[in-house]
Amino acid sequence: MEKRSKMQLALQMISGYGAEFSAWRMPGTDPAAYTNMDSYVERAKLAEQGKFQMIFIAVTPVLSSNLGPQTPMFPMDPMLALMAVARETKHIGLVATLSTTFNYPYNIARQFKALDVISHGRVGWNAVTTSDPLAAANFGARVTERKERYDKAHESIQIVQALWGSWESDAWTLDVEGGKFADMDKIQPINLQGQYYASRGPLPIPPSEQGQPVIFQAGGGREGLELAGKYASGVYANPYDIASAREHRQAIRQSAVRFGRNPDDIKMFAGFMFSLASTEEEALNRRKQLMNFNPQEIPNRVSYLGSMIGVPLSVNLVDIDKPIPADLLKNAYANPRDPRSPIALKLLLQGLSVRDVLAHGVINYHPVVAGTPTQVADFLEEWFLAEACDRFSVVPDVSFDGVADFVNQVIPILQERGLFHKEYEGKTLRENMSIPYEYGMREYGINE
Ligand SMILES: Cc1cc2nc3c(=O)[nH]c(=O)nc-3n(C[C@H](O)[C@H](O)[C@H](O)COP(=O)(O)O)c2cc1C
């Protein structure tokens, strides 16, 4: 068993503003952070000062938000943002998502491997199948059934790995005197032909300092678990409570064992969001301020909250600054289809107003801690010691001050408690993630 004394942290950067779509209006934020690469670089440098193991950029190739009040959810281009960060940092890992459904494996292999070489071995690829119909439409396609998406993903990852290994580790000779740039006997085509994808290779890129990028995965169901177990060293997940997180982590570990791997070589990252302030009340006020920047969304949030507790709520029916009247709450129940429902119901039964309950983040994509640095550290400690996850993907509400506050106020508490490292252990992402060296494709045939 891995010694579970230290957690690891990934900083989720996404569009550059933070978790909340309205973060661009927060005083102090550069409203144009979306196109300002300095903004990514500054946040990444802060994260590096805090010894974060990596930054992570989730991406779906689609413009899905309402650009009236909201920012785009994803960056202009993740690889270009990471390239800017790579040139200005030295230690922090650089991980981005690229879809196996809508990209040729050759392009994926080339982009990630080039960045891995440029950054001296700090890169990871989050391989996802992408099931958003609007993303599919951007490629003139429709979302296909899950089996086909995952069959494609297996082919894609194997071809990408094989291309990454298409130079033997000592192929780049750089022999100036002998006039031999590289040893062509050690640079070979891969000649892989699958049902959906094929590639001849080789890639025009030598090995990086970590051999090749680290593979991550995020996705659902039995097929997602299988993909993770077979290839991934990191898995991004979105559990909402400790019990389901533990179950998911065990399932991921068992899947790795089924593919003949050591379960400690696959690390589950649980997503979590935070709003920091010196008191819980101030943190909740910060979240209410963010909510007020986007008032058009409030009616949707209120009716969604209603669906979580089996009560038809609307802004016309209730005063959102007051507790829900007892006669409306008497038949409320936690909707079993949404794991966030029990927390929402508990807060409403405690007599909090609808606005306060929403400010607690009960309908956010990940669990939310709105509170003091100690409360945030307590949450991370509890999940980590309960073996709910191996790592965290942390998402600030607003990046411009949230990253600095986390680094200056939460990291020292985690370090003091012996839960987080004080120095980078190695140079490459593999070394810093404590995962084994891999090079090229392991021994599996296409779609076996
Ligand atoms: C934690 C998590 C993170 C994800 N991140 C991304 C992402 O960055 N980009 C993307 O296109 N899809 C992302 N997905 C969605 C998957 O690609 C896939 O579309 C989704 O899991 C639904 O399909 P499936 O259940 O068949 O896997 C993510 C899914 C999960 C669970």
UniProtKB/TrEMBL annotation:
A matching Pfam family: Bac_luciferase
Residues noted as binding FMN in the record, renumbered to the chain: T97, Y150
A GO MF term: oxidoreductase activity, acting on paired donors, with incorporation or reduction of molecular oxygen
InterPro entries reported in the protein's UniProt record: Diverse_substr_monoxygenases, Luciferase-like_dom, Luciferase-like_sf, NTA_MOA
Coiled-coil segments on the chain, per record: none
Keywords on record: Flavoprotein, FMN, Monooxygenase, Oxidoreductase
Luciferase-like domain sequence ranges: 30-291
Entries under PANTHER family matching the protein: ALKANESULFONATE MONOOXYGENASE-RELATED, C2H2 FINGER DOMAIN TRANSCRIPTION FACTOR (EUROFUNG)-RELATED
NCBIfam families the record matches: FMN_nitrolo
Family assignment from sequence similarity: Belongs to the NtaA/SnaA/DszA monooxygenase family.
Annotated protein name in UniProt: FMN-dependent oxidoreductase, nitrilotriacetate monooxygenase family
Organism (species): Paenibacillus algorifonticola
